Description:
The protein has a domain at 9-98 and 108-137: Gcn5-related N-acetyltransferase (GNAT) (Aminopeptidase, 3-Layer(aba) Sandwich), CATH 3.40.630. Helices cover 32% and strands 29% of the residues. The protein is built from five helices and eight strands; from the N terminus they run βαββααβββαβαβ. It has an eight-stranded mixed β-sheet, sandwiched between helices.
Amino acid sequence: MAYAATTRDEAQRSIRTFYEAARNDINLGENETVNCIFIRTPTEDQLRQIVALYRAEGWWSPYDEGRRQLIRRLISGSHCFVVAEEEGRIVGMGRAISDGVSDAYIQDMAVLGARRKQGIGRMILDTILARLRADGLRWIGLIAEPGSCSLYQHAGFREMTAWAPMLLTIEEK
């Protein structure tokens, strides 16, 4: 588990950054621009693409197949939900959950396999962090998957060596 602390000055800078980065773009080369946008109410096409990302990450179980509305609830229940789009195609996503007062967790981040190592994950993370800081959240945690720590360390996260992530999975009947 990792976390990032935010000072008051960083939060004020982040408020400016958030409003400037409400649509965060990176240019990946000839005619290739990926931009991050926040969504609250996804279109049917966005839902289909987000489910495909969740499925590719192994986060979408066969039990969930007939329940696409879960994604709508997941998005609307998140503190913020960001998609990285390229010409209308979602190539990555990330979301944070929060109490809206002091703490937040980066819950999910995913980039299509063919688009990894191109700065898209970093752009998604930076966009989410700018939003969380703009909202005054000072403790941001996450559980990093193996091999992804450098992405988060670049953003200021550090390991919480004295803490142990824990999980309780409740099986559906």
